[in-house]
Design brief:
Layout lengths: L7 H7 L29 E8 L4 E6 L4 E7 L5 E6 L12 E6 L4 E6 L4 E7 L4 E7 L4 E6 L2 E8 L4 E11 L21 E2 L4 E6 L4 E9 L5 E10 L4 E5 L9 E2 L2 E8 L8 E8 L3 E9 L12 E6 L5 E6 L3 E6 L6 E7 L4 E6 L5 E6 L4 E6 L4 E7 L17 E2 L5 E6 L4 E6 L4 E7 L4 E9 L5
Antiparallel strand pairs: 1-2, 1-33, 2-3, 4-5, 5-6, 6-7, 8-9, 9-10, 10-11, 12-13, 13-14, 14-15, 16-18, 17-18, 18-19, 19-20, 21-22, 22-23, 23-24, 25-26, 26-27, 27-28, 29-30, 30-31, 31-32
Length: 449
């Protein structure tokens, strides 16, 4: 595969060096190319990731590339551990996490102060993932096996409402089985505002908007506001305000969604308008077509907004990265770049013009220059010769403070790798075991473990 060559001087100019490193940056496995004072930062980082085959949550000291412990959930397909970050707890030293058990009817509550499961929350379905409403502390949980969503009060860890169709639809699917959502009944949950949330029904290709109301007696009730039909199963919704761009007016807000594609239908980016008490409507749809590929060879997993408040990166299954200007009417594809098989999530560095594309079914990640949206390099991270499932994990991911290193879990290999973005290679690898699917990196700024 042809790679765009960038001189070491140019790469160095893109990387922010000397802003305080983590302890593992002084490792001899890094080749000694740092010159950083590892004591300059008081921030330590732990990772909590689900091992979906051994039904564990592994806890890793990221700075020292060391496995601290493995926490048994007692449930099946313990896929992810996700931080419950609310307005009241967002700066907590030891946050609470919810564990999505995709093969059991339970969310587990994990106390990161003691690294123990302190409660299991029963559900009517297998949980897929969560979305936290930071102001209210309410958590939406979508279903893996049923097109359902439950609302949990995170202050009491109890279910206050459940909506959707109490019928198993997995593994029936109207989308492509090889795309990340595969045969899952629901897309990811999302809050539209403090009291409106969505249920993404993938089998029936629709997005239902619900309103949540607190009654005078303290109980809660839900009402279906509207249903929006989509051309293919939707993966998730994301508001562009994630990077400060509100796109709002009066009572309406713009959201963007990924249509994953289905038989004979190309994947797409959907621009949606939300109006309180009226629900979602489709404003625009941009089909994504890669040259030389049919609709049945493609499939979009995820979209990410860049911090330039103009650009979306969206990777497709066959390896095309679409660079999209979402500020124009209509939206337009500015260019494409070649990534890897299963191109999905993009993680942009906070202070520099770099982004990493995660290729979920390939052996390398793709490093992008976000100032001109050109590929810098493909960096090999996996030792697999044959990939049967998911090679690279789902979020979260982690950059070192100086911007030089990128940390990524490898699912099938059960490992954590530290990638030197200057040298463009893996410089350290921690063997853990199992299949590490998804989770959280927790930064402790006080320096306490």
């Amino acid at each position: 595969m042809k790679k765009l060559i960038m001189s070491s001087l140019t790469v160095a100019s893109l990387l922010l060096v000397g802003c305080g490193g983590t302890t593992n940056e002084a490792s001899t496995k890094s080749g000694g190319h740092n010159g950083l004072d590892s004591t300059a930062s008081t921030t330590t980082t732990r990772a909590y990731f689900g091992d979906k085959v051994n039904n564990l949550v592994v806890v890793v000291d990221v700075d020292n590339m060391k496995l601290l412990e493995s926490i048994a959930t007692g449930h099946e397909v313990s896929y992810a551990a996700e931080v419950i970050k609310t307005k009241a707890t967002k700066h907590a030293v030891n946050p609470k996490l919810y564990v999505d058990n995709r093969g059991s009817n339970f969310i587990d509550v994990l106390d990161s102060a003691t690294n123990t499961i302190i409660k299991s929350i029963p559900l009517k379905f297998y949980p897929r993932s969560i979305a936290v409403q930071e102001r209210t502390g309410l958590v939406a949980v979508s279903g893996t096996n049923k097109a359902m969503t439950a609302i949990i009060d995170s202050t009491t860890d109890t279910v206050i409402a459940t909506v959707g169709n109490d019928v198993v639809t997995q593994p029936t699917t109207s989308g492509h089985s090889y795309v990340s959502s595969g045969t899952l009944a629901s897309g990811h949950p999302h809050w539209l505002d403090e009291n409106h949330f969505v249920l993404i029904d993938r089998q029936n290709k629709k997005i239902d908007t619900y309103k949540l109301t607190k009654n005078s007696d303290g109980t809660w009730s839900t009402s279906l506001v509207n249903s929006l039909a989509t051309s293919s199963p939707v993966h998730n919704l994301i508001p562009p305000e994630i990077h400060g761009q509100k796109h709002s007016h009066v009572n309406a807000t713009i959201f963007y969604a990924t249509g994953e594609g289905s038989t004979g239908v190309y994947p797409s980016i959907l621009k949606l308008t939300f109006t309180a008490d009226e629900g979602l409507s489709l404003s625009e749809e941009l089909p994504l077509k890669a040259s030389g590929f049919t609709a049945d060879q493609m499939g979009i997993h995820h979209l990410n907004f860049l911090k330039d408040q103009k650009t979306i990166y969206a990777g497709s299954h066959e390896g095309t990265l679409f660079v999209i200007d979402y500020t124009t009417t209509p939206m337009r594809v500015m260019k494409t770049e070649k990534a890897g098989i299963g191109a999905g999530h993009a993680d942009e560095m906070k202070h520099n013009k770099l982004a990493v594309i995660i290729n979920h079914k390939d052996t390398f990640i793709t490093l992008m220059n976000t100032s001109n949206h050109t590929k810098i390099a493909d960096i090999k991270v996996s030792e697999l010769t044959t990939i049967t499932g998911q090679s690279q994990s789902h979020p979260k991911y982690h950059f070192s403070k100086d911007g030089r290193y990128f940390y990524l879990f490898l699912t099938e290999e059960g490992a954590l790798v530290k990638v030197d973005l200057t040298e463009k290679k893996v410089v350290e690898r921690l063997e853990i075991g199992g299949e590490l699917a998804m989770g959280s990196f927790v930064e402790n700024k006080s320096g306490h473990n």
